[in-house]
Amino acid sequence: MAMVETMTPEQTRTPETARPDATRSEGTAGSPLVGPGEDAKVSARDCSVYYGEKHALKGVSLDIKVNEVTAFIGPSGCGKSTFLRSLNRMNDIIDGARVTGLIALDGEDIYARKVDVVQLRARVGMVFQKPNPFPKSIYENVAYGPRIHGLASTKDEMDDVVQSSLERAGLWTEVKDRLDQPGTGLSGGQQQRLCIARAIAVSPEVILMDEPCSALDPIATAKIEELIDELRQNYTIVIVTHSMQQAARVSQRTAFFHLGNLVECNDTEQIFTNPLHKLTQGYITGRFG
Ligand SMILES: Nc1ncnc2c1ncn2[C@@H]1O[C@H](COP(=O)(O)OP(=O)(O)OP(=O)(O)O)[C@@H](O)[C@H]1O
Ligand SMILES: [Mg+2]
């Protein structure tokens, strides 16, 4: 089902841009919007982001499919992080940042006035480039979110949430005997898996990852990539990466950005074997960027 059809006018800040016919992403090669019968978890329509006068993201229309990994690729400064942050309103906390157009989660405008941003960020979690555990114990890093969202009412329940989140993040066996030690004392790769455990502890629906492996060695990277593949059974994942190999390994769809524009979005295999746009071809073959 195309999500735009389920949006009511009051959920749509810019109704003129939310009509499917008005948004067939002119100028974008490939298939940025899902077809009939397919599920879009997140939909962007004519989304622009400005930092003061700077127009950093330019009228992007893109659907992100449920239970898939979508990779965002493109040269430095092309707007990948900017777009990613607009998907859970992280740009709200950047002074001077302004988002226009429509971003919908399950067909509902996430920028609507009634939306509780704390709840939204529990539904759309984020993992950053640099592992950033809280200066707390391993246990408390994971328990923090469930506690503020009231997801566990007893100590036993909380223990279960912490254990299952660490298990799903592939970290449990490495840390089960030292849950009370500081999260910051783990290795970089373990810290990143702790951050993933922290993100999944609140049962998000979408996980946004901004270059989650860029600070990791190849072994830790391989672990995170395996994990991403497992997580996609239950979550919708968006990953920003500078590694073509990583995008090819972990994602089913890939979106290529250039100078704030979405140039091409397609099945990952198509993007890497037979891109439709010259700019995509140039980037994936390493001729620029
Ligand atoms: N907080 C900010 N204030 C002003 N300009 C910004 C801010 N954040 C990003 N920009 C600008 O917006 C554009 C897009 O930046 P963004 O960080 O989204 O790029 P990116 O594709 O994630 O790059 P990279 O691959 O280097 O992480 C750039 O020109 C950048 O300088
Ligand atoms: Mg970035």
Automatic annotation (TrEMBL):
Q: Which GO terms describe its molecular function?
A: ATP binding; ATP hydrolysis activity; phosphate transmembrane transporter activity
| Pfam families, per database record | ABC_tran
**InterPro entries for the chain:** AAA+_ATPase, ABC_transporter-like_ATP-bd, ABC_transporter-like_CS, P-loop_NTPase, PstB-like
Topological category with respect to the lipid bilayer: Peripheral membrane protein
Name the segments for region: Disordered.
1-40
Q: Which GO terms describe its cellular component?
A: plasma membrane
BP GO annotations: phosphate ion transmembrane transport
Top-level taxon in the UniProt lineage: Bacteria
Q: Which UniProt keywords apply?
A: ATP-binding, Cell membrane, Membrane, Nucleotide-binding, Phosphate transport, Translocase, Transport
SMART domains in the cross-refs: AAA
Give compartment(s). Answer: Cell inner membrane
Q: Where is the ABC transporter domain?
A: 42-284
Q: Say if the entry is tagged with keyword Membrane.
A: yes
Membrane found in the keyword field: yes
**Function of this protein?**
Part of the ABC transporter complex PstSACB involved in phosphate import. Responsible for energy coupling to the transport system.
Protein name (Swiss-Prot/TrEMBL): Phosphate ABC transporter ATP-binding protein, PhoT family
